[in-house]
Amino acid sequence: MSYEYNNQTIPFKHGYPLRLIVPQWYAMASVKLIKQISVIDSNFKGPFQTIDYVYYPNKENNKNAFPVTTINVNSTIQKPLDKEILNTGTHLIKGITWTGKGFITKLEISVDGGITWLYAKLEPTKKC
């Protein structure tokens, strides 16, 4: 349980007065507002644990689905905007990438639908 972060009281929207911390689990999957704790001898089958915060490795079915514990490597392109029409020439492609475990050590980008890949410059930002 935690009652503060960054030397400040936990705000209500994050579970004030206490927040349950589950080691090795992504905070989004942790309960914020606790009224009762029950110890059970099996996996809990609530919607957040079985549907919402679950990774689905197979696009066709739910086979081998597993709960979100740590954040997978993820990224998003911020510039150019989605479906923005670009003239020929050189263009800046800007985005962010993050992971819940480990480090981002290289960055590649494809501008031809994944046929070829080019190394991109990785600029570290301050850690949150």
UniProtKB/TrEMBL annotation:
Residues 2-46 form the Oxidoreductase molybdopterin-binding domain. InterPro entries: MoCF_OxRdtse_dimer, Mopterin_OxRdtase_euk, OxRdtase_Mopterin-bd_dom, OxRdtase_Mopterin-bd_sf. Residues 69-125 form the Moybdenum cofactor oxidoreductase dimerisation domain. It comes from the Bacteria. This is DMSO/TMAO reductase YedYZ molybdopterin-dependent catalytic subunit.
